[in-house]
Amino acid sequence: MYNSRIDKSYINMLILFNIYHYLLNNVVTLFLKSRNSIRGNINFWESSKKNKTHSFTVKQMKLKTKYLAGTNGNIISAFTFDDIGDDHMYTGLETPMKMDAFAISDAEKKEKISDLFAQIMDVLGLDLTDDSLKGTPDRVAKMYVEEIFSGLNPDNKPKIALFENKYQYNQMLVEKNITFYSNCEHHFVPIIGKAHIAYVSSGKVIGLSKLNRIVQYYAKRPQVQERLTNQIAMELKDILNTEDIAVIIDAKHLCVSSRGVKDDTSATVTSYYGGVFNKPHKIAELQNYLNQ
Length: 292
Known about the structure:
- The protein is α+β, with helices and mostly antiparallel strands.
- It has helices at residues 2-51, 58-72, 81-84, 106-123, 136-148, 208-219, 225-240, 254-257, 280-291, and strands spanning 162-164, 173-184, 190-199, 204-206, 222-223, 245-253, 268-273.
- The chain has 3 domains: 2-84, no CATH class; 106-152, GTP cyclohydrolase I, N-terminal domain (GTP Cyclohydrolase I, Chain A, domain 1); 162-291, GTP Cyclohydrolase I, domain 2, CATH 3.30.1130.
- It has a 5-stranded mixed β-sheet with strand order 5-2-3-6-7.
- Helix 6 runs antiparallel to helix 7.
- The model is unreliable at 33-71 (pLDDT under 50).
């Protein structure tokens, strides 16, 4: 009886070992296949960029689509970037930045941008010795770093001070028609619009000019309007410690009006409603203020 139990235990152990070995082999095989597939997609993508080619076979198009889908988990569809064209897509709430985005100083960035922009002008056939053009690369570099893309640098984030709500004002506060200038991250041409912000105090209030500065900070970077709307809202939620935030942006995109479809009359409206602003009567009240 004793030996029989040992034999059964030994047999059970062998069975479990074989099952474990089988599962391990399958997991390793799947991992290697997945890794090779990803490497192949990335190598193809990098190769297509270097060769500047846009003539893809059906198989290559599928590979490219897999690579695009793999970057953020969303399936875009089997189209090239030219096919995607003006579709208003973005990859997340945070502005896409390199890990070493601030490894060099602003002065070094301006120098590099000036050199590279001079090359662009040269390729276009412009005469960089002309008095009107020779200072353009430096002017563009300064504009990019110090002005229209200054919101990329966290050092430029506005310092915000909060105050006690001593007035006991418990209704919505609306700051409307905040003018901003941003730039479309797909074509690097201007987005011009107005932002409307509302919030209900949770006990703290913010200086009115700081609302404008928050809008400007997030606008001064390559943007898409949906992300800009949500970034402003998330910042205000964090600062004011309240869900009761509303942000509405009404903007004109020059990537639509000055090129592509060339529609000069359309505008884009995006909104964020949090907390009490999800209630229909609060949205109606806010719209009433905006329409006055």
